[in-house]
Amino acid sequence: MVKVALVSDLHFDVNHQELDTVIPAHVAWLKQHQVGVYLIAGDISNHFAQSLAYAERMQAALEPAQVRFVAGNHDMLHDVTYDELGTSLAPTYLHQQVLDVAGTNWRIVGNNGWYDYGFADNLPGRDFATWKRAFWVDGSISQPQSDPERLAAELPLIQDQLDLARDAGKRVLFMTHFVPRREFIRYTDDNRFWNMANALLGSPQMGELLAKNQVETVLFGHVHRHFTPRQLDGSWYYDQAVGYHNRRINEWTQDDFASEWRQRVRILNLN
Known about the structure:
- By secondary structure, this protein is α/β, with parallel strands linked by helices.
- Helices cover 31% and strands 17% of the residues.
- The chain has helices at 19-32, 48-62, 82-85, 128-135, 147-167, 192-197, 204-212, 257-264; strands at residues 2-7, 35-40, 66-69, 97-100, 106-110, 171-175, 217-220, 230-232, 235-239, 266-270.
- The radius of gyration is 18 Å and the shape is globular.
- This is Phosphohydrolase.
- Residues 3-225 form the Calcineurin-like phosphoesterase domain.
């Protein structure tokens, strides 16, 4: 049995946390709980260099345990290009990569994911791309194609990885940042901004792909709503986001970052 720890949306800079303080505490807790794999489903910080530094320093301190992350939209805001995100930037970066969990029959498949406006199909005819550039943080992220095209490029790559896992007889834990199921989207009658933002949260196509391939376990992030783990179409979905705590927004249930991180980390036992 290998213990795998799941978390996402640490947002170190928004939460005013320093890596030199955070890393020793995280390492000590993960070692105490004998975690063999530590997975972070994106939005570690607003700078890819800092996000990568966290993962690499955690990996060095936790050896022989494995640390892996995918990039969320916030990780993509600075210090990295679209083309670089599609390469093997570091051993800890799992986008379009896999990790076989030693001593088990499990394979972790990683993909950053993206969105295609499918969760805002209740708003026909809207120009989501223009709205995004005007009002959403992702408007500053450079890419060579539309948002639906960006997601469409990833789906066959994910299918290829799932085919390889099936052919190898592997059970799959899939890690992505963006929301894969409509059940985790909030629709409202009194918040037009949020209904537009739903377009940028993920894609129902991702959930359909995971269901078709009978993926057993899915870790995602991006929404900070602290969902209880839920089984849908045979797959268990985990959203272990830490989220924001600042003068404008408080999504935490604990009083400090260390306590909130411990509260949000979920450990699964993989046999």
